[in-house]
């Protein structure tokens, strides 16, 4: 019985286009090349059919074994329904079927593009290009933002640690918050370098353990950042209200909350991913409840910080009303607006705008929303360092004091060298007298 080649030309042409697109898009190792995989499958199929040839005599009716350029169909009797998995190069689950009839093999059902869910159409290259361009633009944007934040935060932490007069519980809490921003920016760069620098691994469907660790650590840094924003909110609220604990003891509670609680959440998330959704580099969100292990604590942190913000604003309004009853109300509102702006940036309250984004939105809405969220997230470290370090009056006074002290030492060295050179040349005594007068006339406030 002759082999009847019955398959849809459109489906084979679509898969051929897919193979050419993948091959031309990036040179991949042989073990990852779809053409190489298909060639291996063809050789294996022909060898298997040749070995089973003796069991299928020429006189018996049925359908002979057949390689249809995608799947290997074994010998079958009339009336049999044979199933085969999707081609290996697609790296997807699913099955296609053929019936063995009196006229030979039937057409495959369902079609490969439905059974294997590769969803190829003529607009795929254009859509891929547009999505790739958007991703590159967004990645450049948030990389610049995180780089600026990283540099400014490192300078801010150095300043707060260098000067002893700035050592207090309030600045120690600020330092921990700055370190969480530094950790977040650093791990974002590490995650991107791991996920997007070696794309060859992902063509084979093989995801190294390093990319999963990078994603997990990146999520930990984000959780730690939110928890330290919460610690800042509680610390400021406790300064304005009655507190039963000392500030130094409270600092240790904040350290446990800021660095310990995200670790507990991350362990739960990693366990759920490993047991129920161990796919890719753990960056997918197909199972909703696993994603909520990270999302729910973030929403709780934001809502609690919002409550602290409302309480602090009420306290500030009460103090401004009793502080200067005869003053201009414009000054009261100006001070209140300034305090509110500082608190919003410190508490990260702008994240509440992005915490309740619906899952089912249009692609353009999701792209705009993601761009704005990443723009705020990447530059928040710079804003916090600017407001709470570089523009802080206490820090500016300390820097100015150190600058005056350094200039004073430089002037003393210059004035000391000048009399010695004139004395060695003239050998007279008036230069020594003038040196004493100049030294004694320096203001005491500058001699620190």
Automatic annotation (TrEMBL):
Residues passing through the membrane, by range: 140-160, 172-190, 226-244, 251-269, 289-316, 336-356, 368-391
A GO CC annotation given for this chain: plasma membrane
Pfam families listed in its UniProt record: 7tm_2, HRM
Keywords: Cell membrane, G-protein coupled receptor, Glycoprotein, Membrane, Receptor, Signal, Transducer, Transmembrane, Transmembrane helix
Domain (G-protein coupled receptors family 2 profile) ranges: 44-120, 138-392
Compartments reported by the entry: Cell membrane
Annotated Polar residues bias: 421-448
Stretch forming the signal peptide: 1-27
Biological process, per Gene Ontology: adenylate cyclase-modulating G protein-coupled receptor signaling pathway; cell surface receptor signaling pathway
Origin superkingdom: Eukaryota
Membrane topology listed for this record: Multi-pass membrane protein
InterPro entries: GPCR_2, GPCR_2-like_7TM, GPCR_2_extracell_dom_sf, GPCR_2_extracellular_dom, GPCR_2_secretin-like, GPCR_2_secretin-like_CS, Secretin_7TM
An annotated Gene Ontology molecular function: peptide hormone binding
Region (Disordered), start-end ranges: 416-448
Chief place of localization: membrane
Keyword Lyase assigned: no
Annotated family: Belongs to the G-protein coupled receptor 2 family.
UniProt name for this protein: Secretin receptor-like isoform X1
């Amino acid at each position: 019985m002759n082999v009847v080649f019955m398959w849809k030309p459109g489906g084979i042409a679509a898969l051929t286009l897919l193979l050419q697109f993948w091959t031309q898009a990036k040179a991949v190792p042989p073990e990852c090349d779809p053409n190489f995989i298909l060639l291996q499958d063809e050789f294996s199929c022909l060898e298997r059919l040749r070995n089973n040839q003796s069991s299928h005599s020429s006189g018996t009716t049925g359908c002979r074994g057949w390689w249809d350029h995608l799947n290997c169909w074994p010998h079958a009797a009339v009336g049999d329904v044979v199933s085969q998995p999707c081609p290996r190069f697609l790296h997807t689950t699913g099955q296609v079927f053929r019936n063995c009839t009196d006229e030979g093999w039937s057409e495959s059902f369902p079609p490969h593009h439905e059974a294997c869910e590769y969803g190829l159409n003529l607009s795929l290259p254009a859509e891929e290009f547009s999505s790739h361009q958007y991703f590159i633009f967004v990645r450049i944007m948030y990389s610049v933002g995180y780089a600026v934040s990283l540099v400014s935060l490192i300078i801010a932490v150095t300043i707060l640690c260098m000067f002893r007069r700035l050592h207090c519980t309030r600045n120690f809490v600020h330092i921990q918050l700055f370190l969480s921003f530094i950790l977040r920016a650093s791990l974002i760069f590490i995650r991107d370098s791991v996920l997007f620098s070696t794309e060859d691994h992902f063509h084979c469907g093989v995801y190294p353990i390093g990319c999963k660790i990078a994603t997990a650590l990146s999520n930990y840094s984000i959780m730690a950042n939110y928890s330290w924003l919460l610690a800042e909110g509680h610390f400021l609220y406790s300064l304005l209200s009655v507190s039963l604990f000392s500030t130094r003891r409270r600092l240790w509670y904040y350290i446990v909350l800021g660095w310990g609680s995200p670790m507990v959440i991350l362990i739960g998330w990693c366990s759920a991913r490993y047991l129920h959704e161990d796919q890719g580099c753990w960056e997918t969100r197909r199972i909703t409840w696993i994603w909520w292990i990270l999302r729910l604590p973030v929403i709780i942190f934001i809502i609690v910080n919002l409550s602290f913000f409302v309480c602090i604003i009420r306290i500030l309004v009460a103090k401004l009303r009793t502080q200067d009853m005869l003053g201009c109300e414009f000054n009261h509102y100006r001070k209140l607006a300034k305090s509110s702006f500082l608190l919003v940036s410190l508490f990260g309250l702008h994240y509440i705008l992005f915490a309740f984004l619906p899952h089912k939105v249009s692609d353009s809405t999701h792209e705009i929303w993601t761009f704005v969220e990443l723009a705020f997230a990447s530059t928040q470290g710079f804003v916090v360092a600017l407001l709470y370090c570089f523009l802080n009056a206490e820090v500016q006074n300390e820097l100015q004091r150190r600058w005056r002290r350094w200039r004073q030492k430089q002037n003393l060295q210059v004035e000391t060298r000048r009399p010695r050179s004139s004395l060695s040349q003239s050998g007279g005594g008036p230069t020594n007298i003038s040196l004493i007068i100049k030294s004694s006339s320096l203001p005491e406030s500058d001699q620190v």
